[in-house]
Specification:
CATH class of the largest domain: Alpha Beta
Number of helices: 16
CATH superfamily of the largest domain: Alpha/Beta hydrolase fold, catalytic domain
Helix content: 40-55%
Largest sheet: 8 strands, mixed
Strand content: 5-15%
Mean pLDDT: 96
Number of domains: 3
Order of helices and strands: HHHHHEEEHEHHEHEHHHHHEHEH
Amino acid sequence: MRFFKREEFEFSMELTLGACSYQAADPGEAWATAGRIRDGDANGWFEGWQETADRVRGTAEECAAAGRRVSARSAYLRAATYYANALYVIDATDEGSRLLPVWMAHRGCFDRFAELCDPPLEPVEIPYEGTTLPGYFMRSGPPDEPRPTVILNNGSDGPISAMWVQGGAAALARGYNALAFDGPGQGASLYLQHLYFRPDWEQVVTPVVDYLLTRPDVDAKRIAITGVSQAGYWVPRAVAFEHRIAAAVADPGVFDVSTSWVEHLPPNMRRLLDRGEQEKFDRDIRFAEKVSKGLRAVLDFRSRPYGLSSAFETFAAVQQYTLEGVVEQIRCPVLVLDPEHEQFWPGQSQRLYDALQCPKTIVRFTTSEGAEGHCEPKSPLVRDQRVFDWLDATLAEAA
């Protein structure tokens, strides 16, 4: 029951259908858009999703002008999702120069959605190393009532609108506050501030916790954090050092980020990387990119948030993203999500779970329940039920 043979297309389509659970997409709009796209045609993918996004944004603007807040809010959120879809394979298209304008359209739609929520999602600026990290605080109760709060840590390439689907809406429905933010290498921090990924993510999360503790609507004893995709590494790394967090969730568990990079290299390239032969490694990568436009697009997309000048530097940097020698320092309870057919870090959820020496739980997601695959794309309701039921029980003990 696939829409596309091309894996990037299919995964993005699964995420879009899952987003319907929280009204961040519409099944009919998604199906109609997919029907206009030829499998494997990156230009057609970009144009198809941008066309849908433009149309839905136009609807949002008309509804907003007429004072129809609910209709406008819904359409702005869907448009934000569709613009993000258009960008998913932009590096494989002839539209590379459109990246920033389309991303700005995506962010503008999410900003309008945030304004129209009741209560509004509050734009925040989190102090960070001489600058700030942008985010959205989602409040579920009165502004002076301390409540449990979950930090939503995005992955390596997800849009901020995905955080509404991957925890934000579920948190508010259960009486939690939520905070979504763009860390270095993510969203506005990448595109507007030119901040880049770092392995020592506690240097990012500690300022986020510092900020939360300034708010009267945050219960200091009941701060949790969830991490999706590459944040399945960042979150365990952060809580190994930041002990004010009462509970952590990794979806999936990621012990060593570099495996999703180096295991795709041929043996001779791995030897060049291990020996530090940068000139030869970069030469071979450049040759491979000339032969395969798809490889070039993937490397451009995956490398951008690292901000480094060569493929060798990026591959070498990624090898620093490991929990080796760190995982033993984690104290808070950790929930590890383990989806069947995890395509990026297979087996690493179990590896992380086995290495943890703190209170720990692992939860499987299976094909038979429609919840398989990286970050359970088709089943956010199943995911959120298990995550927040665990958080309810865990944070009750921390209160």
